[in-house]
Amino acid sequence: MFTCKCLTFFYAITPVHMGAGQALGVIDNPIQRERHTDHPCFAGSGIKGAFRHAARSLWAQENGLLDRVFGPEQDASDHAGAISFADAQLVAFPVRSLKGVYVYATSPLALQRLARLAAVAGVGLPSFSCGPLQDDEAVVLNKELLANEGERSRLILESYAFKPVAKEPEGFKALAQWLSENALPEGPAYAFFRNKLANDLVLLSDTQLTFFAKNATVVEPHVRINDESGTADDGGLFFTENLPPEAVMVSLTMASEERLKKGDKRDDRLRAEQVMERVRRTFDARCLQIGGDATTGRGQVLVRFHGGSA
Which of 216, 220, 230, 276 sits between 20 and 30 A of 77, alpha carbons compared? Predict the structure, then answer.
């Protein structure tokens, strides 16, 4: 039983390709998506594999710790690991803007799902109320993002115009500030992005966030090179989809007391809080490579932990 839970943010520093392994449309290598929302997601198994891979070198001097926390690699049937990761879900998606370069787009559904995970982790969020929005409406905290003036002011995202709502939902600004403080670490390297997330978080309808999350990802053409000629192979053109940089995802990290092989009576068994603390101390505010295409710089995400209730 997992008795210690922690909210875990993943902030994309480079494009991320967590592959779905199948192609149903024109994109040959699509990213993972939730079936019911079509939002990008990271499978928990892939997240755990990325953490384990990184921990192998980071914990090289701590004999046996890797298997004690993540479970044995060779004899997996001996006992389970003491750490687990839920699938990561979308919190904010970067969308190109006429003013301000880009915004962090979110929706009532995405924020309510964040609040639900926070409750499971025992993390208190600022109280907020985000009612339904029309598909042509947006909640805009930073008025500098608006084009034109007066009653004709509009938020322009890609080629679409959104009318700013007259009244800002209760608690939305406080929530944006909380998110900026917890999804990104302190320090001069992240000060700009913390400030931008706090001010340029934009609330769209659930339908519009899904539209951008489906149609505003990074799609890159690749060619297969013929080994003999050194030139592009015939029929070797393919397209790979990536989650764009600046996307914010959230997951749940869960820890249990160290699992033991049947019959093992070790006295120094790690408690759930100790397992969580070892993972947090190692990875908090650290870049982690997640997903595929690591050799082309893909998959660099910044990890932040928050909470850790027992």
Answer: 276
Rounded to an integer, the average pLDDT of 194-201 is: 98
Name the pLDDT band for 149 (thresholds 50, 70, 90). Answer: confident
- pLDDT tens digits, 87-100: 999 999 999 999 99
Q: What is the mean pLDDT of residues 22-38?
A: 83
Q: Give domain limits for the chain.
A: 4-309
- What letter does residue 68 receive in the DSSP assignment? H
